[in-house]
């Protein structure tokens, strides 16, 4: 459950500094949501069931083979864990904000963003938090750790863990940029909600490493919709499959998506303010 | 086959709701997990009346009085907590299809028609639902279209219609099966004056043409004055008055409210807000924004208005009926249950 | 005096016979739904394309396994896996019915009250209008199936019996799921805290219906369990009816099993509805 708990259309918020702002939003929102304790158990149940279904799928797969496209069972556990974590991060921090952004664009209530465009992107990206979705981060982490433990020697140990975290953050950043592009298309198109649902569906392909998909799918799921960067690449870090080349490409992609999304956001915002001026 | 008598008979009808009570605060929330407190709300508290076939009766009362709850019980949506009711000889709670296909409940701001399609298509759907033979259906549909003047509206998607147009088209859809009992819950709410009048005249026409029994709830006095000879006033779930509308107005609406806006405001001082003192004409109800509201007894209105217009430079003057809530307050103040003059 | 007026003007209602009016009702509901959904064709397409992702993932995974296991696994080749999951997309579209999550809104927003005023059981509205929607869906599905077939080259060679049973089975699946999800939704009459229950149901369905993998690939005890539950008859059975391998006996048994579950579903709906309506009309909407 997400709550838009703060009126952002006051002078205080327009001039406040971004990090402090982000923290106060988070604190207020978290406190609010923590009241609804039943949501926690509900979310936990859903998380466990979804993850459980995925693990059952893996179990059936590995009842019939010992490796899938070169990936062993513990490695696929790692992928599943990362997938769940990234889903959790996205659904907690990114999706609520992007959905609210689309709403604001469609209803014309984005005006507070026009006063300070530089801060606006930060504002619209951090003001909401769906705290109970973060349960997925926890459950995903557990599966991830189990997978890494099972890998034992084949995992990368501490070095792997560090690069995992960094690439996880990088991948999440890339996904955020993609979501921003998606949400910003509301400045031009009406059918954004359906595109968002389409993306949520596509994201499920991340539960397996994108490398197993046929060429054209792999390309689409890496460079068009950056699921590969969000999930597979961090998983490769943890499973000692990471190459220098991959890291370079991931960094490049993150930069490109960052610049691209920023540009689209600003162009859209100009269009929006031009329309209402 | 015998024609069921279009009669509504209600005896000591009751409806009690159990509403959970929850206080604010964390401690109260925790307590409520273990022990649920409920409060009993008597929405309808022993209501009795009989409506003869062909009557047009108005249920009057402020919000929360129990009017809608009574209608819902009479149309089978709600089970009574006590007492009994029969509509068309059936017990409404049983929701007998034979009863349902002879009655209609139209609620002010509810949509029954398909949103994305022209009303005509929804009409066809209703034909199938109510099993109306084709020729009968066409006849009724065309009559309704003519009476409600919706010929151009029925071919447009319902979502493209204005509120008033949508209401007319909804009413048409609800009457295709030619119900002989018609419950109308706030049918003119949110509509402009012209549309209100149009719908009122339609209801009257429907009643005359088909002899339908009509029960109308409203908190607009105008609806009731235009249509109902008989009113039943409901307040706090009780019948306060059941009888002739003329008698009600005569007995209880003894005053009118005159609102005067003055052209030249006197300079405002500490106590005075710049309007002349009108207390010799009647009771001053309020003075705000340069306008004075005055309660004047009915018989005196013409005389006093003329005098005010004569004595002062008046920018604007309106004469209003006291709001129905006030009338009802008077009814209430005059005695808990008043058996009014019954009339035909 | 009023009585005479009523008697003179009114004639008692002549009504169309029940069967004819039911057919007429379903036809009108389906027609209306088709008109509306055709208006929403872009939405429909977006949804269907998004939905294709799930079986594509499964397909790719199992195809990979088949190829690395010498061509086949559990009796399925890459080609038959492709056939299974492509037919899956049609069957999945066919068994989508009114979501139990939507019941709370229906109750709260007065839609149910409106339906209760009419002399028709509200389930007919859902059955009829979703059926019409399915017709549109089948038409829209064809190009999607064509693209998927080009990409994944399914092996599909059903005989005439299989095709007939398949056609029956997809509508059987539709009916079974309509009934069961209606019952699930009716739980909303008693409580609004229904999410957990629904999630458990859908997860069980995912694993026991043939949606995740063909049931023959599941361990024996899971297959055994699925025989007694309705899930496989809403998903796996229609798919395998067309894709095979399936014997004539199995086809017949499957059709009878579907009929059985439909009847069970109808009974359950009747029982729960009666109670649910009593609860609803005690409290009101």
Textual characterization of the structure:
The complex is a heterotrimer of chains A (277), B (344) and C (285). By secondary structure, chain A is mostly helical. Chain A is built from twelve helices and two strands; from the N terminus they run H-H-H-E-E-H-H-H-H-H-H-H-H-H. The radius of gyration of chain A is 20 Å and the shape is globular. Chain B is an alpha/beta fold and 344 residues long. Chain B has helices at residues 26-34, 67-74, 97-100, 119-130, 134-148, 163-175, 193-210, 221-227, 245-252, 301-311, 324-333, and strands at residues 8-21, 37-51, 56-60, 82-87, 103-107, 181-185, 213-218, 230-235, 238-244, 255-262, 283-288, 291-297, 314-320. A six-stranded mixed β-sheet of chain B has the order 5-6-7-3-8-9, with helices on both faces. In chain B, helix 4 (119-130) runs parallel beside helix 6 and helix 5 (134-148) runs antiparallel to helix 6 (163-175). The longest helix of chain B is centred in the middle third of the chain and has 18 residues, at 193-210. Chain B starts with 7 loop residues before the first strand and ends in an 11-residue tail after the last helix. Chain C contains 13 helices and two strands. Chain C has a two-stranded antiparallel ribbon. Chain C is mostly helical and 285 residues long. Chains A and C meet through helix 3, strand 1 and helix 9 of A and helix 3 and helix 9 of C.
Quick summary of this structure?
Chain B has 344 residues and is an alpha/beta fold.
Number of helices of chain B: 11
Write down the oligomeric state: heterotrimer
Strand content of chain A: under 5%
- Rounded to the nearest angstrom, the distance between the terminal CA atoms of chain B is 29 Å
**Helix/strand structural class of chain A:** mainly alpha
Major beta sheet, strand line-up of chain A: 1-2
C-alpha Rg of chain A (nearest Å) = 20 Å
Query: pLDDT under 50 segments of chain B (min length 5)?
Result: 336-344
Most extensive interface, residues per chain? Answer: B-C, 50 and 38 residues
Q: How many β-strand stretches of chain B?
A: 13
- Major sheet strand order of chain B: 5-6-7-3-8-9
Number of strands of chain A: 2
The best one-word shape of chain A is globular
